[in-house]
Amino acid sequence: MKKILLVDGNSLLFRAYYASAYAGPILKTSNGLPTNAVYSFANMLTSLISDRNYYDVKVAFDKSKKTFRHDKLENYKAGRSATPEDLIPQFQIVREFLDSANILWWEKENYEADDLIGTMSKIIENHCEDFEVEILTSDKDMFQLITEKTKILLPKTGTSNLELFGVDELLQKWEVCPANVIDLKGLMGDPSDNLKGVEGVGEKTAIKLLKEYGTVEGIYKNIESISGKLQEKLINGKESALLCKEIATINCEVEIENLIFEPININLNGLINFLEKYEMFSLVKRLSNRVGMINKTDDEGLKEKISYKKLEEWNNDYSSEMNFIYIESIDENYHKGEILGIAISNEKGMFFLNKVKGDKEFEQFLLNKDFRKATYDIKKTATLLKNSNIDFNYHSFIYDAMVAAYVLNPNITSRIQNLINIVQTHLFIEEDEIIYGKGAKQNKEIHIDVKADFIISKLEMLKVTYNLIIDKLKSEKQFNLYEKIELPLVEVLFEMEQKGILVDKLELDKQTARTLSLIENLEDKMRIILKDEIDENFNFSSPKQVKELLFGQIGLPSNKKQSTDKEALEKIVHLHPVINLLLEHRKLNKLYTTYLRGFEKFIFADNKVHTIFNQTLTYTGRLSSSEPNIQNISVKDELQKEARKIFISDIETKFYSFDYSQIELRVLAQLGEEDTLLSIFENDRDVHAEAAKKIFDLKNEEKITSDQRRIAKVFNFGIIYGLSDFGLSNDLKISIKEAQEYIKDYYNSFPKLMMYKNSLVKEATVNGYAETYANRRRIVSELLSNNFLVKNFGNRIAVNMPIQGTAADILKVAMIDIFDKFKKNNLNSYMVAQIHDEIIFEIFENEKVEAVKIVESCMKNAFKKLALLVEKDKNKVQIKLEVNMSKGKNWFELK
């Protein structure tokens, strides 16, 4: 049987947009045209056509917002949120992509893509005996089209991980046959289409009714045999149920002109022209290779074979003064990673080593500082070598492509393929999962030739982009940021990760058992309250089951999305006694799964956790942490704070925490040259009390109430994070007019702040990016938007990023300086963690005086040191940086 792929174009494009938007910043051309959704759409569609061997592919789109369904229900789909502004131009671009690739698409006035696809599928079923159909869509309405010859391809996550639904799979999922999908929709409704269905009838009840009575009409023919509240709900909702069923029914008799099915023949030249026009350089070779497979042509000419030698062991004759090295490991946590192969390139050639353990000459090569090495992700590389007991000289690694690319574009993610987004080459590397498989199917034991070719291709990318990236750093005036801050920080973070943090396993077990007991007690209470509503298998941790319980069975009011998140539940907490318990259960469950039982898998044989400090994941330059995330343990929630007791210092040391006091406000005062704020900090006065005096026109500090100080504090931090009159009125429970007056008084008191904020927005609008004191940049394309909310968000980024990013750079400079001085003074004390504006150390008792002195000095002088590193006038840095210190034998005792 030949397979035809029918694609719901709107559904796939929306899916592609949100998947890529959540993964990182919106991909745009150099002139600001958004292309992220089209990029993902093209990538997925060509991959799918290639992998699943389709005979032909057709795409259908919605043509307009109004269809024949609006004649039946005026507010059909009215509840849907507006299409994101940066997706709108991509609807036209995606059609251009299909035209350029010679993939046929249709749209028709008054009809939806569903109707066109439904019609095509029935034409194929009835007139094309040797064909079968697969429909790619996220719209579960399409399940009604399933037959023995037609199946649905449903993306489970993002635009990948597809699930194939036929008759059996549908029966297993919904316990109904395809013909009953419209009956199910009639009863349940669909908030996304603004179809109400029968109020109070959810999925379980609807399925039960259909199993007994067959159809919606069958239910109403037998309405007298249904009793109680359910009968009442069904009678009240009859008109809605029948209307929803009618609207949900796909029209499979649309007239479609020029519909023929023929073998796929993608136009490679047209496709390449399109990709280059929209600057999708990373797709050029990838899609070129796929087109060769799709068109069943010989694509060997498209693959550039890189020449290299496979070595059993290293020979020092191959060593050179300048080397490129790439060490492969695909384990998510590189602290547990396995080296799968090593590629090396220099003036003497390109080489691949499959195994290096026990290779003495290779260790000599790694240990020799004169043999300089450029790599991708020094920290990961060094960790893999150390954990494999391979000796090396850390300082022989002189270039980190991942960190360099991050400085140039913080929107980049930590993948070597993304180097091309910086330098726009046509090189291409396959995704790891293509070579090694994914999830449970991942396989490291692949053929050595396939593996070697793949690792060599990564090395080639590293080598080709090296000079281009260095030159770009210099031309963008960001080389100092890379060379003097980010690159030295890699070693600091490497040492922190290697040291790790000791875990008190007895305390962990105690808290785990206690929390589990609290969860079980809560569940017992909820089962008593809900004894008539739930069965013994009900899962209180399942949002789906909780949603069905609250809004289906109990019938509580909900928002359009029937959300069960914290904010939504807090709004209806007074309507049912179980909701408070659900909120408490959720909090305890997060503590248990994330911070207690969740931490157990991260404890190594040395009884420590070795978190990964991510240097290249945030837009502002701040560090993040994973495997496990130690930055996210709340200190505000008492139960979560208790979890900090599991982190303990060694027998001979104590934890010391050094935390910058109001660093972002101090940075704001300096960068904005706000004299009044500078004076407050210079004279060690209470900045919130001083602001309160000015806002409320008070003369004496004694008159300031705690409430007035709290309001001033909201202002002081709010100006950094985009304080609005609406937000302030919500925070302070005052009218918008009062909020506006407060804001006016505040800016009158600190006149230079508004001038500074306006200048930041203006500069970001002109330049296209916001910039820190150290020339760290973030693209702010939102400022060009015509959408008020999007542009407002851009304004907030333009103000926040220079302040928060400069604070992050100051912290990094302090860390590097402390690290160097500890080494220089032969101190055994060391840094173990960095959390927001705080650095945590383990300090030996006999070193505490000297260590504390070094830390405080380095942190207080870090802004001036930053000025020197990025070649600015340190004498212009007036602001005093203050540091708070606390100590303890565990993290709970800190602060």
Give an overview of the whole structure:
With 895 residues, the protein is of the alpha/beta class. The chain folds into four domains: 2-170, 5'-nuclease (Rossmann fold); 309-496, Ribonuclease H-like superfamily/Ribonuclease H (Nucleotidyltransferase, domain 5); 503-609 and 617-627, Taq DNA Polymerase, Chain T, domain 4 (Up-down Bundle), CATH 1.20.1060.10; 649-674 and 770-895, 2-Layer Sandwich (Alpha-Beta Plaits). The chain has 35 helices and 23 strands. A six-stranded mixed sheet has the order 3-2-1-4-5-6, sandwiched between helices. Strand 9 and strand 10 (349-353) form a beta hairpin. The longest helix is centred in the last third of the chain and has 37 residues, at 788-824.
